[in-house]
């Protein structure tokens, strides 16, 4: 039996108690991020390249480049999952939002 299987794994949960103002701010951010993801998904499906969308999204939605990259990664992962396995492109290839080749 390998040594690593003898290690104990612990999982923790916590319930965050938020003030009404913090709860509203978190809900507003979740709604914004969801809107960014849905819009980005539609634009990517219509064939628009991500490198052309990034600067427009930063201005349009008032988000940071990191937030755009997170939304792009989430959308591209969903799109890759929807493709048949033999047609999937490697993640992080040329022109990928996280590759730094903008």
Give the amount of beta strand, in percent. Answer: under 5%
Stretches where pLDDT is under 50 for at least 5 consecutive residues are: none
Any idea what the radius of gyration is? 18 Å
Q: Main sheet?
A: none
Number of strands: 0
**Shape descriptor:** flat
The number of distinct helices, counting runs of at least 4 residues, comes to 3
Task: Please write the string of helix (H) and strand (E) elements.
Answer: HHH
Average of pLDDT: 84
Q: What distance lies between the first and last C-alpha atoms, to the nearest angstrom?
A: 48 Å
Strand pairing plus helix content: what structural class?
Answer: mainly alpha
Helix content range: 40-55%
What does this protein look like?
The protein has 102 residues and is mainly α. The protein has a domain at 17-81. 55% of the residues lie in helices and 0% in strands. The chain has helices at residues 20-45, 50-61, 65-82. Helix 1 packs across helix 3 and helix 2 (50-61) crosses helix 3 (65-82). The termini are far apart. The model has no long low-confidence stretch (mean pLDDT 84).
């Amino acid at each position: 039996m390998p040594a690593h299987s003898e290690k104990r794994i612990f999982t923790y949960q916590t319930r965050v108690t938020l003030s009404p103002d913090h709860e509203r701010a978190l809900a507003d951010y979740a709604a914004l991020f969801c809107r960014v993801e849905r819009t980005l998904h539609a634009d990517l499906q219509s064939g628009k390249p991500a490198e052309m969308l990034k600067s427009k999204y930063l201005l349009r939605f008032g988000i940071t480049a990191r937030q755009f990259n997170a939304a792009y990664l989430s959308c591209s992962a969903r799109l890759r999952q929807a493709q048949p396995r033999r047609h999937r492109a490697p993640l992080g290839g040329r022109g990928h939002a996280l590759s730094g080749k903008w």
